[in-house]
Amino acid sequence: MSSKQPKPRSIETTACAYCGKEFQWERVGGATVRKYCSAPCRSKFNAEKSGVRPRNRNRVRQEPREDTVTCLQCGIEFDYQVMGRGRVPQICSPECKAARRKALKEEKRQDCPTCDVEGCEKKSRSSGTKSGIRLCEMHYGRTRTNGTIDRIMRDYTRICHYCGGPAPKQRLFCSDVCRRRDRLGAPDRILVCIACLGDIPEEKRLDTQFCSPKCYRIVERGKSYGLTPREAYQLLGTPRLCDLCEEQQATHIDHNHDTGKVRGVLCTTCNAGLGMFQDSARLLGKGVTYLEKNGSYGLEWHDTEADASEGLAAAS
Prior knowledge:
Layout: E1 9-15, E2 22-28, H1 39-50, E3 64-70, E4 77-83, H2 94-111, H3 137-146, E5 158-159, E6 166-167, H4 176-184, H5 213-223, H6 229-236, E7 252-255, E8 262-266, H7 268-276, H8 281-294, H9 298-301, H10 305-315
Antiparallel strand pairs: 1-2, 3-4, 5-6, 7-8
């Protein structure tokens, strides 16, 4: 297996076809002979051959100039280098440039006359105004804003857009309550709870209709039985005894399952008992007869035996 042989290399010396200067170049393998010493000579030769004037033919290459100058700010000599006729630097560093600029500004300020206002020793902002009066920055700003050189103490207290009372600086409303009322368009009246008719606290949302979560729960329970907010609150809003036993606190709304009419409020025990007897007066009457025949807690449950008899008669 034959390996690839490297191309022969040799150093050749040839005269440039344009400027006549001899130059050396490296021939690799069977490469053609180079005719020009550089790319500019090749472009100039082709331009003359075609009759087109080459671009920048008469341009003379500028050599960099080097010299030593003294810094105008710190006085230290430093070397610089510029191309052609470039500007000679006068500052040695950016720090000296900033310091020089500040010094020139202060010097210019010292040359300015003082403010014409009596008692003011500040420098004027310019040689003068249209009226011929020289003013400093402070008095000039007052003249533009207030129309006079005197200081005017402005009252920054604002008026509430809702209630008309005083509002803090840079605010449209005196409080968050007025802000919410203005945003929701609440009327100018005292907001009351729709259940207990009590005043709704100021910190509540303006679109709420209840003064407390308790009133909200009572009204939601009353909706299941077709009760108005006032009717639901009258039944469950205040503590009351069971309508059946009159001993325990009533916590459940009792209603007729056929007609949906509310019959009253019962305690947990009585409400569950009626449910076990299927709300049937016939079954309750049989239960009373059974208990009186076989023994019961009737005498302990009722105040007198007559009350038990009345209950039996009502059940039958």
